[in-house]
Amino acid sequence: MRVILRRVCQGSAEVDDVVQEVYYKVLVLDGVAHIREPRAFLVRTAKNIVIDRLRREAIVNIESMASLDELEVEDVSASPERVAQGRSELKWVIGLIANLPDRCKEVFRARRIYGLSQNETAQTLGISEGIVEQETMKGMNLIADMIARVGVHHDAGTTNVAVRARKKKNVHH
């Protein structure tokens, strides 16, 4: 960060001041758990400090303004829309899994959600590896069937209701 700041600031003293100000801003935060990309956060904070300093100055150094682009960091965090969409998709998938028969659901969760191996799943659930394989395939086929019948919905509640309604129809006919 100091290397980039040297291009933007008027001297090493100003670089030190900006770095100190960045440290101060981090220290006064209530917590840092929300910071997913620490480097990006620090660079963004430094950039904001430099911009504030430039705004306060009566004369702006053209070279400093041109070098500000070097402080750009790609925002790698998910947008609020993407987070909401991801949560909706997760609810939808959980709704599909909830509609599986009990043993199939247990095996499917162990294998696909918790990432257990076939052997670990068999030992954990007290069943044979062959049954684990069969139940995993059965779960995948049932989920594929549910998707084919109901379609792709991103609302878990809608999926559960629609799948249960179709199951009841199939039982009565």
UniProtKB/TrEMBL annotation:
<dbReference type="InterPro" id="IPR039425">
    <property type="entry name" value="RNA_pol_sigma-70-like"/>
</dbReference>
<dbReference type="Pfam" id="PF08281">
    <property type="entry name" value="Sigma70_r4_2"/>
</dbReference>
<dbReference type="InterPro" id="IPR007627">
    <property type="entry name" value="RNA_pol_sigma70_r2"/>
</dbReference>
<dbReference type="InterPro" id="IPR013325">
    <property type="entry name" value="RNA_pol_sigma_r2"/>
</dbReference>
<feature type="domain" description="RNA polymerase sigma factor 70 region 4 type 2">
    <location>
        <begin position="93"/>
        <end position="139"/>
    </location>
</feature>
<feature type="domain" description="RNA polymerase sigma-70 region 2">
    <location>
        <begin position="4"/>
        <end position="57"/>
    </location>
</feature>
<keyword id="KW-0805">Transcription regulation</keyword>
<dbReference type="Pfam" id="PF04542">
    <property type="entry name" value="Sigma70_r2"/>
</dbReference>
<keyword id="KW-0804">Transcription</keyword>
<comment type="similarity">
    <text>Belongs to the sigma-70 factor family. ECF subfamily.</text>
</comment>
<dbReference type="InterPro" id="IPR013249">
    <property type="entry name" value="RNA_pol_sigma70_r4_t2"/>
</dbReference>
<keyword id="KW-0731">Sigma factor</keyword>
<dbReference type="InterPro" id="IPR014284">
    <property type="entry name" value="RNA_pol_sigma-70_dom"/>
</dbReference>
<protein>
    <submittedName>
        <fullName>Sigma-70 family RNA polymerase sigma factor</fullName>
    </submittedName>
</protein>
<dbReference type="InterPro" id="IPR013324">
    <property type="entry name" value="RNA_pol_sigma_r3/r4-like"/>
</dbReference>
<dbReference type="InterPro" id="IPR036388">
    <property type="entry name" value="WH-like_DNA-bd_sf"/>
</dbReference>
